[in-house]
Amino acid sequence: MSSPNLSALIWAVAERLRGDYRQSEYGKVILPFVVLRRLDCVLAPTKAAVLVEKVAREQEGLDPALFMQKVTGLPFCNLSPLDLTKITGASDNIAENLKAYVQAFSPAVRDIFDHFDFGLQLERLAKADLLFQVAEQFAHFDLHPDIVDNTEMGRVFEELIRKFAELSNETAGEHFTPREVIRLMVNLIFVEDDAMLVGKPVRTLYDPTAGTGGMLSEAGAHLTELNPDARLTMYGQELNPESYAMCKADLLIKGQDINNLKLGNTLSADGLPGKRFDYMLSNPPFGVDWKKIEDAIRKEATERGMNGRFGPGLPRVSDGSLLFLLHLLSKMRPVAEGGSRFGIVLNGSPLFTGGAGSGESEIRGHLLENDLLEAIIGLPTDMFYNTGINTYVWIVSNRKPEARQGKVQLIDAGGFWQKMRKSLGSKRKELSAAHIEDITQIFGRFEEVTREGRPISRILDNEAFGYRALTIERPLRDAEGNVVLATKGKLKGQPVPDASLRDTENVPLGEDEEIYFRREVLPHAPDAWIDHEKTRTGFEIPFNRFFYVFQPPRPLGEIDAELKGVTDKILELIAGLSA
């Protein structure tokens, strides 16, 4: 059965919930039933042998679970003699039988249903006289891997997750990244790795904000297209229990080790401490504060310093985006072990927020001074479900190709979009396959690109983003205008600075600060001086400035002629009214 047909059949079951459930709640029922029926079918061929093994081991006084898993050949089993067909065949006590059946699964599988609150949904369905109808429909679906393989089943599950997310626009953005954005990010992290395209490589992929697993799934699917023999072992962590359950179910259906997915707050409690990965992808929440976990973050930063995750600096509490970037940096493999590359989606704030010496500036400086930032791609507005703001994909690697070393590529893809046929929340635009390919090629070729007189790709030295913030002082003067001199301390005999006249100047790292000072400051303030003790090095990425194209104003004669035409038109309309 093809995935569109199967998706349609399952969707038809969801329609039975109309009236008793809100559309945004359909997924809480349908998704766990899909998982249940899939596992039901997967375990069916070994069901009889497993039950024999169970009896034998229990008679020996042993826990049968591990022995049963050897019989199934899978990392899970079910201890119950029931299955979905038997449960729906006897219409009495369906809710209790389903609960008992679910509780008989291995703990890692049971955890999925627990986080779906499946027991509560069974009770709710029973009260609405819908439980038998829904369960019977699923009992008729043949989801055995011989009929629907893992790849096909994964597509069906992803399609259902996507549909349910789209039905709830207010939460879609929290748990769901647009597929075309994921596809672009996957392209960008794989495009330079030729080793993934030949042989049978095995690599690891990690998403610290896994959501429903879209990034992990899309990465796996895309790699399969590029090289069917390549394999990605997937890892992740997710804060939202329901999203965690969906992601874990998706990984289970695709044959991944579901123990690699952890529940909890990645920033305050890393679920995979000590693990390092080949590739990473993340779309952390935009502009969300980290006040609730501030104590844990500051404690790690203070106690572990550069040996921990947050040594380079801490951003302001109102926006934790850069904390996720620092977390990903800590998960990179050492270069000697092959290194890593990751892509992360951020809003505009991390590009420039925070002056010299601030946490944000220090984090940017850490990336640039260690030559970790490969590229930043500016996406069109209105690309995400819960916000229309500008977003950017940062590509970070500690294994830069030689040509990229010491440089950063900026790509302005703000004009690469097509209008969606139907808006979804704030999402009104999308990237076409051609747009994704174009952006990927621009990145892959690593060259400057200009189209129709407008720059699309810029390549800049790392130091182009650094500056020294100079503190410019001017002397305090008395009522007669005389310079006040200090009478004690290390400034004794020198002019006292006037705090009300204090100013700062940002000097690019590549420019001599004394030459800059004589050229830009002294002609306007001959009594000024630099307080070198207050000089700070800062880093910012003024993305739009590098793509600015000066548009000269039109000739005055042309503007005057246009104004005269408008004025004449107005006078003509007034004359018509008074006639």
Description:
The protein is an alpha/beta fold and 579 residues long. Among the domains are: 3-153; 465-544, no CATH class. It is 41% helix and 15% strand. It has helices at 3-15, 26-43, 47-59, 65-72, 84-89, 94-103, 107-115, 118-127, 131-139, 150-166, 169-175, 179-190, 214-226, 241-253, 294-304, 321-330, 349-352, 359-369, 433-445, 513-520, 556-578, and strands spanning 202-207, 231-238, 261-263, 279-282, 341-347, 373-378, 391-397, 407-412, 418-424, 427-430, 449-451, 454-461, 466-473, 503-508, 529-530, 536-539. The strands form three sheets. Strands 3-2-1-4-5-7-6-8-12-11 form a ten-stranded mixed β-sheet, with helices on both faces. Strands 13, 14, 15 and 16 form a four-stranded antiparallel β-sheet that branches. A hairpin with a 2-residue loop joins strand 11 (449-451) and strand 12. The N and C termini lie far apart (76 Å). Residues 170-175 have low confidence and may be disordered.
What is the fold's blueprint, element by element?
Elements: H1 3-15, H2 26-43, H3 47-59, H4 65-72, H5 84-89, H6 94-103, H7 107-115, H8 118-127, H9 131-139, H10 150-166, H11 169-175, H12 179-190, E1 202-207, H13 214-226, E2 231-238, H14 241-253, E3 261-263, E4 279-282, H15 294-304, H16 321-330, E5 341-347, H17 349-352, H18 359-369, E6 373-378, E7 391-397, E8 407-412, E9 418-424, E10 427-430, H19 433-445, E11 449-451, E12 454-461, E13 466-473, E14 503-508, H20 513-520, E15 529-530, E16 536-539, H21 556-578
Parallel strand pairs: 1-2, 1-4, 2-3, 4-5, 6-8
Antiparallel strand pairs: 5-7, 6-7, 8-12, 9-10, 11-12, 13-14, 13-15, 13-16
